[in-house]
Amino acid sequence: MASSKPEHAEKSYLIRELAEEFNVTTRTLRFYEEKGLLKPSRIGATRVYSAADRTRLKLILRGKRLGLSLDESAEIILMYDPVGTNSKQILTLIDAIQDKRLHLEKQKQDLEQTLEDLELAEAKCVESLKHIH
Amino acid sequence: MASSKPEHAEKSYLIRELAEEFNVTTRTLRFYEEKGLLKPSRIGATRVYSAADRTRLKLILRGKRLGLSLDESAEIILMYDPVGTNSKQILTLIDAIQDKRLHLEKQKQDLEQTLEDLELAEAKCVESLKHIH
DNA sequence: TCACACGTTGACGTTAACGTTAACGTAATT
DNA sequence: AATTACGTTAACGTTAACGTCAACGTGTGA
Asked: Which of A1, A51, B15, B79 has the least CB density, counted as fewest CB within 10 Å?
């Protein structure tokens, strides 16, 4: 085989492709890059996103749906892959993770409470419908 | 008893009290009022918040912790007490409630996924600590 | 060759949710 | 009477997360 292409090259994406897939604008992707959340490589000037970039984007957007700021999402993403091999740094990281988890657990409670309330509200609506007729 | 005070007057609050209890600034409370989220009564010029106001504030802040905008929280709060006696309006409301519930259910999934991820990240950290020593 | 679709980098505009400052009134202490 | 502590309105400032130009380069099919 004379081809110079590696057999298992990782999938890569152009800015437009990623934007369409996740339903964000290209401006958004460039903005995330400015903030250091994505670091696509380049071919000439045009950005080329790796599978890892895609995953990070996914996580960012998931964070957004949770109401997290971009910085908070960035923090969390950093927690996912081990940065420091130093044991002191790891301990710090564990602390941070536990903090975040506590916060999210609280959020989960709020969420469940709100869902309950809405369920109740809906039931009341249905009930009042019965009595109208 | 010659007292003119009703025996079971509802509890009321000054702006400072509410602000301190919920750890927000008085500016925030006034801002919420501008947006129509709170409607304290007045004694002269100074605001007097009722128990109902307090509850609404609680709901607003719960919404914030979920990442909702003030407008979204306002919507939800409106869902809690029946506005329209009209059956068409009630049907519309039920729809809106179901929409919101769907959205929150999605958010709950995101949240649980993130919690799982963090749990895993923490476990990895703990593990790597073992191998350092 | 020329339009056209796609990419790029600035740079200014916009909205939400308050913060901050100014300028003032009022009620209780000192 | 003066200070202190609280309240008020009005208005401008700030930050985050993009939107929206403008001005330009690049490849490709008619």
From this structure: A1
How confident is the model at residue A84, as a pLDDT?
72
**Is A75 part of a structural domain of the chain?**
no
**Contact yes or no for B105 and A115 at CB 8 A:** yes
Segments in chain A below pLDDT 70: 1-9, 133
Answer yes or no: do A18 and A42 share one domain: yes
Q: Taking CB atoms and an 8 Å cutoff, what residues of chain A touch B122?
A: 94, 97-98, 101
How confident is the prediction for chain A on average, in pLDDT?
90
A50 and A86 share a domain?
A: no
Q: What CA–CA distance (Å, rounded) separates B124 from B112?
A: 18
User: Are A57 and A87 in the same domain?
Assistant: no
The whole-angstrom separation of Cα A93 and Cα A77 is: 12
| Closest nucleotide over all strands to A47 (CA to C1') | C7
Same domain, A28 and A57: yes
> What pLDDT score was predicted for residue A54?
96
Regarding whether A92 and A57 lie in a shared domain, the answer is no
Q: Contact, B14 vs B47, CB < 8 A?
A: yes
* Cα B21 → chain centroid: 14
Q: Which of residues 18-77 of A touch strand D (CB under 7 A)?
A: 24-25, 27-28, 31, 35, 44, 64, 69-71
* CA B78 distance to own-chain centroid: 12
Residue A88 resides in a domain: yes
For D15, which residue's CA is nearest its C1'? A69
pLDDT of residue B97: 96
For position A4, what pLDDT does the model report?
A: 38
Question: For residue A105, what are the domain limits?
Answer: 82-133
